[in-house]
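To: structure desk
From: M.T.
Subject: fold request, one chain
Message: Could you run this one when you get a chance? Sequence is below, nothing fancy, just the single chain.
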Amino acid sequence: MVTGLIYWLLYVRIENGTSATIKIMPMLEDADAFWMYWMCQAFGWSAMLWAYVTVIFGLLRSGPRPGANLLSAARLEKWHRTTSLTTIGLMFMHALFFLADQIRTNQDQWSLGRSVWTAFVDVFVPGGYATGTGRVAVLVGLLAFYLAIPLGLAFYLRHRTGSRVWLALHRFAIVVYVLSVWHTLLYSTQGWYDGPFRTMLWALQIPIAVLLLVRLMAPARPSERLRRGGRRYRDAALPTSARVVGRIAAAATVLGIVAVIVTGVDGGRSPADAPLAPWPDKSAIWAGLALFTLIVIATVIRVRRRTAVATRPGTPDRSTGRKSRPADEGEQKEQRGTSG
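Reply: Done. Structure tokens follow.
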């Protein structure tokens, strides 16, 4: 329903001549002929909206919460799971309508078979889109989509991977949101040029960045707090140094977004200027993905090793000298899936 309302809004703006997209691509002013492109836009914006809400629910669930009676942990967790699944579905529909529009465009010069194959490579193969800003923007959007699937659906495999591994994986889901926003700022023709709408997109990221900082400074799980001593702190998914760096990075992000809004240097383009070259180069994005993958793998290995040691009967706790139990109360709750 929300996607339909967004489509209607885009259609109205085309008809009354206020659409920012038409100023860039006037050939799309026939909304009825290019309805697949506009459906792609509508699904993209609804996916972005649902991703925004999903991240807010997740940060509230895993950090300090206002009014326990108003926003209980169980309710937040249910909302977070529901909106997460919806977001993945909307992202897929966004890509599917982009594929359909590409096939329609390609058929003007190629056969149906070649049109479908070329469109598939452009839309679903990372790095396949080879022209203009899309060389970077489509790659970033695809990485967000493909990372959302394992990081978002890891919850449903927690009984096979273990709750600690699931939690460790799910914490990296914030990267999916960052990539989605990056894709939007790079490629959305609605926010292509600098101006109030693009500034609003940046400003809307401040609540997310602040909630992330608050969640890192006061996490709901005791093992994530910056205190030393005891097995529960040594068994955290990330070492203390990495958690400190994460808090510093979150604080810097808040300040950076504020600086972008105050200075007006938001990466937007002026209608009078020539198009900017895509930045960064695709090689830098692939290098970043490789580094991110190594960090995820190292984190999972660390968690699995500590879980194996912690749950081994008779293993002495190095801080107390006592023998460990198979699982403490917190671990039992995690195994039942009540911790988010």
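Reply (cont.): DSSP finds 15 helices and no strands in the chain. Let me know if you need anything else for the meeting.
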